[in-house]
Amino acid sequence: MADGADRDLIVRLAFGGMAAQTLRAAARLRVVELIGCRQCRASDVAAEAGAEPQPMHRLLRALAGLGLLRDHAHETFSVTPAGAFLDPVHPASLTSFVRMFTDPAMIRAWEHLDSSVRTGRTAFDTVFGTDFFSHVARHPELSADFNEAMSQASRDTAATLPHAYDFGRFGAVTDVGGGDGTLLAAVLAAHPGLTGTVFDTAEGLAEAPGTLGRHGLAGRFTTIYGDFFRSVPAGSDLYLMKSVLHDWPDDQVVTILSHCRAVLPPGGVVLIVEPVLPEAIGTETDADVADGGGTYLTDLNMLVNVGGRERTRTEFEELCRRAGLAVASVAPLTDAAPFSLIEAVAG
């Protein structure tokens, strides 16, 4: 007979998609926002959300089972510390992250994971008739959720990175694919001698001036829109990229890195912030990814949705070599797992 714990693991994993959609419903119905800091009857939440009382009670009960609410007597619920991250006013809210990663645009291609594994092709392009980023750009609400989700996903890194690397030896930094400027704002705020540029598509930059302005960085930043497959703006001695290269297949990664190399001055650095997979899970020289396997799921997400991948140190070294760069160091980014800092210099 199979071990009970092993069987339970399979059952929990099989129910994972249902749990994700329960989160999505909670975010769309503003459940946590409506409950706030009080204990609230399910019928009152339903009335404020414009929903039916009995189904709302069932939803709240399920959220309690997931650890996001507390189920009190008389069909009354309150929010747990974990559930508070579904409140859009929480300073570290994950509401847009949940909305984006449970959206049909993100999950429909997963139904064809087996096909992507068989063929190596990106399922999203077949399902939607275009690539992921073009689809997002054509849907303003989805684009806004995507930009905010990327910002929310960058907050731990933004809190850690400025103190984990010697930015003080540089004069100017360009954040390539920097989105709304969350990461650059943190770096500039911690290093007053730096100036910075956020480089991204027009859609990606939509919120960047506001983000950097709110940090009191007027006069110390510029925003430039463009296509990093064509060029990268010159003028910096540090080129920073977080969660950019994993979106793309190898040849396109080499193109991005080559454009950074083309404008890199003597002594300049390309700093890549990405997960670095162990060469083999469980080897004595490589620790397993310490995020419950999430990085390997992200790797599959790259396969089905955008065509990129997560990579090992050896794979990063080879891509940098092809672009005229050499990896000088790789270091885990403490307190922002599973990310590492990959420092590349002219090869």
TrEMBL record:
Cite the InterPro entries for this sequence.
COMT-like, COMT_C, COMT_dimerisation, SAM-dependent_MTases_sf, WH-like_DNA-bd_sf, WH_DNA-bd_sf
Q: O-methyltransferase dimerisation domain location, by residue?
A: 12-85
Keyword flag Methyltransferase = yes
Please list the GO terms describing molecular function: methyltransferase activity
Q: Can you cite a GO biological process for this protein?
A: methylation
The highest taxon in the source lineage is: Bacteria
Q: What keywords sit in the KW lines?
A: Methyltransferase, S-adenosyl-L-methionine, Transferase
Query: Which residues does the UniProt record annotate as the domain O-methyltransferase C-terminal?
Result: 110-325
Q: Does the record's keyword annotation contain 4Fe-4S? A: no
Q: What is this protein called?
A: Methyltransferase
